[in-house]
Amino acid sequence: MKQERARAKAERQTKRTGRKYRPHIKRFERFNWHRAMFVLPNLFTLSSIFCGLYAMTLASGEARPQQLSQAALAIFFGIFFDMADGRVARLTKTQSDFGIQLDSIADVITFGAAPAVLIYKWGLVNLGFIGVLAAFIYIACGALRLARFNVLASRSTGSKKFFIGLPIPLAAGVIVSLVLFHQTVFATNVVRTSNILVLLLVLSYLMVSNIRYRSFKDLRLSPKILLLTFFLVIAFSVIAASIQPTFALLSFFSAYVLLGLLEEIIQFIRSYHTNHVVNNGNITNSHTSNDSSTNKSDQGM
């Protein structure tokens, strides 16, 4: 009935003015909060990109020690935003392929390019082209690691207890905490640039290696986990209060790197021991079968 009245009104208005009448219909649509929530984790990711860009602007040119420390802090805040965007996406149930790709691009900028520029200006600038090449190797390995992560993530849908290779935010955390500790405690130029070069190459290799690092996504609240968390917080606080807060950060990131290496060594020893036992068992079984066949042949004779 309403449609017929609207059509009749449109025809009368058309005859009167000679132009086709198009009624203006107001539509009040309900605001979709779930669709708007998709923007929230992406804002954290974009904030991480801003931190990386700000760090590169501080470290570029004739950077002073204070500017290098500020650049390291900017990357550290980028780590915070990178940790927050994934958790916000899971809490709001707004995970998407777009967010995964955007997060990878942000990681290349904030934890690849920015730490490479920082460590070059801080400890590798005296090496010239070799320092530039080492910084490039770090960025390249970080990009390869992220590309492999995206491929593996698209193939598997289950819970991921381990990362394959050192995550690039943790590699950047080692660099950032080392720069902050050196600038806070020593406040001098780096003397042993060869050590910094070796460290950067080791971190680059760990990112593209097959060493497994725990993601801690499968942790559940239990008395053991709570007790371990309480012990780690106390140890972190004691180190920060007695020695230096930046040394506590360096200890935290270094402990994660060493934990993956230690678990890989233990896994290798266990697999080697298992294979050794299996091989010995096969050899024993073959000898037993040979002896039994020999006895049977002797009895037949």
Account of the protein in words:
The chain has helices at 2-17, 33-37, 39-59, 65-92, 97-124, 129-155, 168-185, 193-208, 223-242, 245-300; strands spanning 162-164, 212-214. α5 packs antiparallel against α6 and α7 crosses α10. It is extended. The relative contact order is 0.08. It is 78% helix and 2% strand. Strands 1-2 form a two-stranded antiparallel sheet.
Percent of residues in beta strands? Answer: under 5%
N→C terminal distance: 110 Å
In round numbers, the mean pLDDT is 81
- Rg to the nearest angstrom? 30 Å
Largest sheet, if any?
2 strands, antiparallel
Query: What letter string, H or E per element, gives the SSE order?
Result: HHHHHHEHHEHH
Helices, by number, come to 10
What structural class should be given to the helix and strand makeup?
mainly alpha
Structure described in brief:
With 301 residues, the chain is mostly helical.
Layout of strands and helices, then pairs:
Blueprint: H1 2-17, H2 33-37, H3 39-59, H4 65-92, H5 97-124, H6 129-155, E1 162-164, H7 168-185, H8 193-208, E2 212-214, H9 223-242, H10 245-300
Helix pairs in contact: 3-4, 3-5, 4-5, 4-7, 5-6, 5-7, 6-8, 7-10, 9-10
Descriptive key words:
301 residues, mainly alpha, 78% helix, 2% strand, two-stranded antiparallel sheet
